[in-house]
Amino acid sequence: MPSAEPTQASVHEPDPVRPTKEDPIAEAGSELIGGPIGRRARFGTSWWNPVRVIALVAIGMFALGLIQKAPCYNGGWFFGASTQYTHACYSDIPHLYQGRGFADGLVPYFDRFAGDMQYLEYPVLTGVFMQVASWLTPHSGTIQHQEQWYWMVNAGMLMACAAVIAVCVARTHSRRPWDGLLVALAPAFALTATINWDLLAGALTAAAMLMWARGRSVAFGVLLGLATAAKLYPVFLLGPLFLLCWRAGKWRDLGKAVAATAGAWLVVNLPVMLFAFDGWSKFYTFSQERGVDFGSFWLILAQNSSDPLTTDSVNTLATLLVLLCFLGIAILTLTAPRRPRFAQLAFLVVAAFIVTNKVYSPQYVLWLVPLAALARPKWRDFLVWQACEVAYFLGIWMYLAYTTSGNAHKGLSTDGYHWAIAFHLLGTLYLCAMVVRDILLPERDVVRQAGDDDPSGGVLDGAEDRFVLSAAVASARRDEALEGPQVSWGKEE
User: Fold this and answer.
1) Is the pLDDT assigned to residue 302 strictly greater than 70?
2) How far apart are the first and last CA of the chain?
3) Which of 50, 153, 260, 366 is the most buried (most CB within 10 A)?
4) Cα–Cα distance measured from residue 361 to residue 294, given in angstroms and rounded to the nearest whole number
5) Per-residue pLDDT tens over the stretch 166-213
6) Tens digit of each residue's pLDDT (9 = 90 or more) over 261-281
């Protein structure tokens, strides 16, 4: 007969965290769907588990984002430069179908196209994504008809990426699946999803974070290498990982992750580097040569200066500024009273790169949303930040409408646009400040308040510190070691 005694797994298996019980905003919002989840609710006992619900919500929000682009789909992209701005439905995708040679059957990186750009200015894996969408697009009818198809095909592929991001976030913190709703319901996520192809790198990065949380260092590295082959920013996650593994002494896992990242990146890039170097290098030379652009504080400085800085000067200053931010994050990591969570540092390094960059495009919010949901799953702060991003999303299109409407001046003036830039920069910095506060005061961290240490940290979760810069932290660790085994970080040590 089966034993009536509970198994060890059932004794130590922690209950899932219910945001409606710990977050006042989540509790208030739950009234729209019947109120907070009850104490007798069971997870995973029916088809409607949290992950499936979050995936469907993400797809539904993405569909609403597609509907928001309807005015442009019905002519705004083709028959009036300002229409796509006044309706806030601009997308790069239909414009680049012809502008980057896909309509003419040109092969990215290998074939030149007319114009100053000459080669596709995107990383290789993004170029492959764009090419696959072109293969699936009917190359018949008017060019406007083809561009509509191309946008729809890309939208379908990007929808899959959005669902992957939401699901990966929901599964990364195994006790907090409902935090994935932060991604699924993020308004800026839905509004900017089809401006460009950023969701591809976002999906690969989210999957990499999930693999690291599961302790699969090689799989993490492979996915992060692929993400870096689609966009540059994912490689910055190796910096926080290095610092955390240094503090915890997990060098072997770090080495496997770095090697797998480099290997996966080379597998994608090396063939194009060898046979079409000029086309392959276009992304990197374009990033270096482009001037100050939309969304950055550098643009505010340039448009308010009689003698604006040169591109080379901005490149140098922006590089120094982001390196200073990275140094600050490194010092924070090695001196914090408790080792920061991987997701916290991942959010901070990507945010530092974006805020100091010479361009802060509206779709860059897609890079931060999944990391923010893992770093600080607090609805109030998340929604404050999202409000700033939505305001900027409207602000940039109204500013472009103002600059393209001639003497009519319909839209937002330059001064108004500068305020919009400041608003979304301050929103990002506000969320960064909240994450830093959680690191300095870990008892304020909602993830750790629930009894976890670092659920996205994989081998770092519950690990002992091996190296710290703070004498006070080192002394506290020695005292813990002298006291013997104890329950710490929500785990038995």
Assistant:
1) yes
2) 34
3) 366
4) 6
5) 999 999 998 899 999 999 999 999 999 999 999 999 999 999 999 999
6) 999 999 999 999 999 999 999
Alpha helices in 46-90 (DSSP H): 50-68, 70-71, 83-86
Maximum CA extent, the chain? 86
Whole-number pLDDT of residue 35? 54
- Between strands 487-488 and 491-492, the pairing is antiparallel
What DSSP line would sit under 210-226, residue for residue? HHHHTT-HHHHHHHHHH
The H helix count followed by the E strand count for the chain is: 24, 2
pLDDT (0 to 100) of residue 114: 83
Q: Are 358 and 318 in contact (CB under 8 A)?
A: yes
- Measuring CA to CA, which residue among 265, 193, 279, 182 is closest to residue 222? 265
Euclidean distance between CA atoms 355 and 19, whole angstroms: 30
* Nearest CA-CA partner of 192 in 79, 298, 61: 61
Q: State how far the Cα of 127 lies from the Cα of 104, in Å rounded to an integer.
A: 15
Cα dihedral 485/213/351/286 (nearest 10): 140
- 101 Rama class: left (phi>0) / alpha (psi -120 to 50) / beta: left
Tell me which residue of 199, 194, 197, 187 sits closest to 388, measured CA to CA: 187
pLDDT at 69 over 90: yes
Instruction: Kindly indicate the confidence band of residue 18, based on its pLDDT and cuts at 50, 70 and 90.
Output: low
Q: How far apart are CA 427 and CA 421, in angstroms?
A: 10
The sign of the CA dihedral 141, 145, 150, 155 is negative
Q: Cβ contacts of residue 375 below 8 Å, gap of 6+?
A: 341, 343, 344, 346, 347, 348, 435
Q: How confident is the model at residue 4 (pLDDT cuts 50, 70, 90)?
A: very low
pLDDT at 493: 35
Q: Is the pLDDT of residue 56 over 70?
A: yes
Q: Are 229 and 125 in contact (CB under 8 A)?
A: yes
436: helix, strand or coil: helix
Residue 194's closest CA among 312, 61, 333? 61
